[in-house]
Amino acid sequence: IWFTSQFFSDMVDHKRGPGFFTSIAGSCVLGSQFVLISGSYLAATFLWVLGIILWIGLTYTIFTAFTIKEKKPTLDEGITGAWLLAVVSTQAIAVLSALIASHWKQPYKLEVNFFALSMWLWGGMLYIWMISLIFYRYTFFKFSPGDLAPPYWINMGAMAISTLAGSMLIANSPDAPFLRSLLPFLKGFTVFFWATGTWWIPMLFILAVWRYVYKRFPLRYDPLYWGAIFPLGMYTACTFQMARAMELEFLQMIPHYFVYIALLAWLAAFSGLVYKLVCRLLVFLNKRGLSKH
Questions:
Q1: Three-state DSSP string of the chain
Q2: Is the pTM of this model over 0.90?
Q3: What is the pLDDT of residue 189?
Q4: pLDDT score of 2 more than 80
């Protein structure tokens, strides 16, 4: 309301604009938690509708603006892992849609399952488009330690939430005949998404070692680190759900141990946040004390 021009300027900016998709992902992930933790489908449905409205508005506003704006950055300056938040938001809607469809009765169960499937497929296609540009930027443009921002972990996280959505659709197939007829396709693409996300994990760890150890990039708290923690937690959840939906019990050992990696990453980021807040508080108190004297 007070900063309308800055708001829309950020929305159509190639670097800052994709961050707006977190509002969709956050709404739908919260809706999923309402279902899983408290069984509150009314709150989940409200957040689902909100997420869809935001998705329609932001998707077509941002990508239309990126297309028609006259001044555009070069590929290496304009694209980051944050672009994949568009995929994450799409798949977050697919996950919540599948959860709601499992509870609703006919005639709406069929429609919502079909909607979940459509969003899942669109999210997968969007990932292919975007990761092609990101990988091209990785391999054919100069890449400095400062370029390797934590949101690049969304390279993996987008595939993790895609795997979770596919697993939910597989779980819904007994109550949806058209999904049952697509089971080989659903299972194949779900494993495809999971395998792609898994490939990114060693690659991103190696690049992190290159950034902080070899290039000695300063390791200090940055709010962007939270963008790297969500993918770690999502990979844990998606592997657990995929193993259960496809009866791949040997994969259960991965989430059993990977959850601790995600928890340690969360604790590290939270500790960094607390440390930074304490430092700022001490600086503020010192300045206040000096001003009194």
A1: CCCHHHHHHHHCCCCCHHHHHHHHHHHHHHHHHHHHHHCCHHHHHHHHHHHHHHHHHHHHHHHHHHHHCCCCCCHHHHCCHHHHHHHHHHHHHHHHHHHHHHHCCCCHHHHHHHHHHHHHHHHHHHHHHHHHHHHHHHHHCCCCHHHCCHHHHHHHHHHHHHHHHHHHHHHHHHHCHHHHHCHHHHHHHHHHHHHHHHHHHHHHHHHHHHHHHHCCCCCCCCHHHHHHHHHHHHHHHHHHHHHHHCCCHHHHHHHHHHHHHHHHHHHHHHHHHHHHHHHHHHHHHHHHHHHHC
A2: yes
A3: 97
A4: no
